[in-house]
Records
---
Amino acid sequence: MSHILCKTSDIEDPGSKGFELKIKRKMQSIFVVHKDREFFAYYNDCPHTGATLEWQEDQFLDLDKALIQCATHDALFIINSGECIAGPCVGEALTSLPLSVIDDTLHLDI
Ligand code: FES
C-alpha cells in the first residue's frame, strides 16, 4: 500500500509539511521534513504527551531549521532519526514512517 503525499518541490529544503491521511483505517496526522535533499516522515505525535508538534500549519522545525521542535514544551528532535535530544522526552523518539521518492513525487509506503 502506498499513499501519494505531494511533489518533492512542494516542501522547501529545509522545510516541513503536515498531512492528514487514513492509515490502517484510521485518520492519522503525519509530517514530512525535507533537509539536505532528503525526506523524513513521522507520526505527528510527540512522545511526551502525544500532542501534535507544529507551532503553525506546516511548521515543525526550530527557528534555525536544524531540528524538529515540539511547540507544546519545546522538545527538540534530530531530523533524520527522530531522536529527542532536549526537553521532557530526552531519549525517546518520534515514530518514523517509510517514504520513497518516485520521479518527483513523495510516497508513503504504508
Ligand atoms: S508535548 Fe511535546 S514536549 Fe511536551
---
Amino acid sequence: MGARLFGWGTESGALTAAEANALLDRVRPWLAITAPVEEPTLGEIELAPPRLAAAGALTPWMRSDPLARATHTYGQAYRDLVRRLERHFAPAPDLVARPPDEGGIVATLEWADAHDAVVIAFGGGTSVVGGIEAPCDDPRPVISLDLEAVSGVVEVDTLSLAARCRAGTRGPDLEAALAPRGLTLRHFPQSFEFSTVGGWLATHAAGHYATGPTRIDDAVESLRAVTPRGILETGRHPSWGAGPDPRAWLLGSEGALGIFSEAWLRVVARPTFHARVVARFPDVGAGVAAARDVAQSGLRPANARLLDPLEAVVSGAGDGGSALLLLGCESADHPVDGEMARLRELAADHGASFDDGDRRPDARWRDAFVRAPYARDVLVRAGLLVETFETVTTWDQLNALRHAAIGTAEDAVAASGSSGGRVSWRLTHLYPDGAALYVTVLAPARPHDRVGQVDEVRTALLTTLAAVGAPVTHHHAVGRVHQPALAASGPALATALLAGAKSVLDPRGLLSPGVLLASSRPGPGRPDDLG
Ligand SMILES: Cc1cc2nc3c(=O)[nH]c(=O)nc-3n(C[C@H](O)[C@H](O)[C@H](O)COP(=O)(O)OP(=O)(O)OC[C@H]3O[C@@H](n4cnc5c(N)ncnc54)[C@H](O)[C@@H]3O)c2cc1C
C-alpha cells in the first residue's frame, strides 16, 4: 500500500462520488450516518522528530521524511482507518528502509542492531491486526523495513512447476510474470492487488480457494529468510519427513523471527474449464448442511462460500430472503461439468433452488468482494464502524458458535451505545471437518471513541471464541491486536516453544516486539550459549 495517507489501494480505484452517494443512500434508511470526514493531508499531520538518522551505505534507501513515515504507520484495520482520520500518527516509525536486495536486508538488521533499534517488516501494509505498527511500550527507535524493491519472479522450474519469487512481489506482478508461461499461483486473498509474497508467508494467508489448497503454506516448496542470527534457507522439498518441518517455524511468524527474502512456490497451469452456480436456501441451516456435504464430498470446488441473507443482500447478490452458496469448479485438464452436476445434487438434497443461466448474482458478489475495501473507506468516513472478525471451528460446533458470535457482536454493539447495528456472517473456507466463520459488524460509530468501541466488540467476541476453544483468527493473523488473547487462550507450551525460537533467531528482540509474543525486551548482551 504505502502511498496514501487514508484509504485502500489507489485513488483511481476508489468509489466515484456518484458510487459513494449511492452506497450511502442504501445505508441511510437503517443506519445514522454523518457528513463525511475529510481525508487527512500531510500538512495536518504532526510527527515527533525521528530519533535516528540514516548514515553510511544505507543512506540512499533510508527515508525519514513525513510522507514515508506517515504512510508506514498503520495497516488497514478499522482502528487504523479512524486513527488516520483523527490525524493521529504518533506510532510513526523513525525511519523507512527500502533495501534493494537481500544484502540490504542483512545490512539493515546489522545497522538496527548497532543502533539499538527495532525493525518491522512491511510488505503491502494490508495487515488488519497491527502487524506493521510500532510498539507503544518499547523505547527503542523503529525502522519500517519496506520490501517493495526486493521483488520479482526470478526463476521458474517448468518441469517441477515451481517459481522462485522475491518477498516484495505483489499479487498482480507475480501473476503477470507467470502468465506468459501459462502458469499461475492461484492465490487470491481479497487483498491480492496490494499484498505481497512475504506478507502472505508471514501471516498464513488464505486465498480464494474455499476448499483444498487454501493457504499460501500449501504452495510453499522452500523458504529463505534473513534473521538476526544469519540466513535460514530450507531446501526445495515436495514433502518433508525428517523430523519437524523447518518451514513450519517460519510460516506465520509475522516478522517476529526473520524477514523473508524469497520463496519457491508451487504453481499450476492456468485453468481453462470453469463452471459456476449460485444455490439459494430460504433455510439458513439447510445452507450450512449443504456446505458441509460439499466439503465432505471429496470434490474440492475452487469456490464454495455460504453467505447469510444479510451478506447476500449487502453484496447485491441476493434479495435478503435466502442464504446463498456460491459454487465454482475449475481445471486446466478436464471439463468440470460432471463435478458441478454432483455439487448441484448435493445442494438440491438440502432444498436449494438455482438461478440457471443467470450469472449476475455471482458476478455481483465478485465485484462487491473486490471493491469492498473501497466501499468501507466511504462508510468509515461517514461515521460508521465497519469491521470483520473471523475464526474456524469443527462442524459439530459451528452452528452453536455462529449463534453465540452473532449474539455477542450484537450485544456488544448495543452495549457500546450504538443503535441499529447489523451483524452478518459468511463461511469463507470449508474443510471436511469444519469451516471458517467470518463475521462483519456495521454500526454507527461512537463519536470520539471509535477505537475504544471496536476494541470492546473485539474483546467480547474473543471471549466467546475462547469459551469454545476457537482460535483468535483463521487468516487475519495475530499481530499486536490478537496477541494478548492468543497468550491467554493458546496452549502455554506452544507459547514457550515460540519464545524459544525467538530467543534462538532473534535473541536481542530486534524484530517486531509485541507481535505474536508479549513485548518483553531481553536484557543487554547476547546469551553466551548462542555465540
Ligand atoms: C481488505 C482486506 C482484505 C483482506 N483479505 C484477506 C484474505 O482474503 N486472506 C488473508 O489471508 N488475509 C487477508 N487480509 C489480511 C492481509 O491482507 C494479509 O495478512 C496479507 O497476507 C498481508 O500481506 P502484506 O504484504 O500486506 O503484509 P503486511 O501487511 O505488510 O505485513 C503483515 C505481517 O507480515 C509481516 N511481514 C510482511 N512482509 C514480511 C517479510 N518479507 N518477512 C517477514 N515478515 C513480513 C509484517 O511485519 C506483519 O507482521 C485482508 C486485509 C484487508 C485490509
